[in-house]
Write a structure and sequence with these properties.
Helices cover 16% and strands 31% of the residues. By secondary structure, it is an alpha+beta fold. It has one domain: SH3 type barrels, CATH 2.30.30.
């Protein structure tokens, strides 16, 4: 995963969840792993093809945050940040 992708808000472009927003928590070459804090929690992320998401420039963290530090992130925190993002749109 690229260091600057962790914590980005992404929009689903395909599937039943089309137009839904998620937070990216992990990637590999072909897939991204997404959470929304409700149905897709940190312990059960959604696996989605990289080409089926649109990356935004918005990150849920104010400061430099790495994947190693995400153990402090909770589902409630993710839900709150996604709600704020949708409200600001």
């Amino acid at each position: 995963m690229m260091k600057d992708e962790f914590g980005l808000i992404v929009k689903s472009l395909a599937g039943r969840d089309c137009n839904q927003f998620y937070v990216l928590i992990d990637t590999d070459e072909r897939y991204v792993y997404l959470v929304d804090g409700k149905s897709r929690t940190l312990d059960k992320p959604k696996k989605k093809n990289r080409k089926h998401v649109q990356f935004t420039k918005t990150r849920i963290f104010d400061n430099e945050y790495t994947k190693d530090m995400y153990t402090h992130v909770t589902n409630e925190f993710i839900k709150r940040k996604l709600k704020e993002y949708r409200k600001d749109m």
